[in-house]
Amino acid sequence: MGGVQSISNGSLLYTESSFLGPNNLFVLSGLTHPGETLNVHQITKFGEPVLRNKMLSQYEEIWFEGAESVQVQGWVVKPAGWSKADAKSTWPLMFLIHGGDAFPCPNQSRRLWVPALAQVRKVFLSLESENSVGS
Predict the structure, then answer these.
(1) Helix (H), strand (E), coil (C) string for 20-47
(2) Exposed e or buried b per residue across 102-117, where buried means at least 16 C-beta atoms within 10 angstroms of its C-beta
(3) What pLDDT digit, counting tens, does each position of 32-65 carry?
(4) What are phi and psi of 39, to 5 degrees?
(5) Are 122 and 96 in contact (CB under 8 A)?
(6) For 10, which of 19, 32, 93, 113 could close a Cys bridge (C-beta 3.0–4.6 Å)?
(7) What is the C-alpha to C-alpha distance for residues 11 and 29, in angstroms, rounded to an integer?
(8) Across residues 107-129, what is the average pLDDT?
(9) Which segments of the chain are extended strands (E)?
């Protein structure tokens, strides 16, 4: 989530992206009264016509305990067309530590190039640095 702006009637306008597409605009409403139901409405669908019939990389978020019991977040991005049968094979692994002082990387840029790298028929593992400025 990024680019949060307050708009009329106590609603928020914000952007959101994922590994499966570019930033889109959303409105979050229902914030004016405690206990009110929150509603999310997607305003834009950038890239949808282009991506509609494309085979995109699958990804999954992972968490594990690192040094000094710190919880580490990461993503495993599998090549487009990945199947359960592929899991039985040995695959090259590309590894990236995301963020931190040595490699600050905003979420939006990571979401653009991580899936692109996975298209080269490698499994891609990206881990968050504890002090990432991009997360």
Answers:
(1) CEEEEEEEEECCCCCCCCCEEEECCCCC
(2) eeebebeebbeebbee
(3) 878 888 899 999 998 888 878 877 777 888 898 8
(4) -125, 135
(5) no
(6) 32
(7) 4
(8) 63
(9) 2-7, 11-18, 21-29, 39-42, 58-65, 71-78, 93-98, 123-128
Distance CA 78, CA 92 (A): 11
- The single-letter code of the amino acid at 111 is R
Amino acid identity of residue 108, one-letter, is Q
Q: In one letter, which amino acid is 18?
A: S
Task: Quote the pTM value.
Answer: 0.59
pLDDT in tens, 21-35: 778 999 999 888 788
Partner residues linked to 26 by β-bridges:
14, 42
Q: How many CA atoms lie within 13 A of 20 on its CB side?
A: 10
Q: Are 127 and 73 in contact (CB under 8 A)?
A: yes
Place of tokens 């968050």: 128
Write down the residue that tokens 């968490």 correspond to: 63
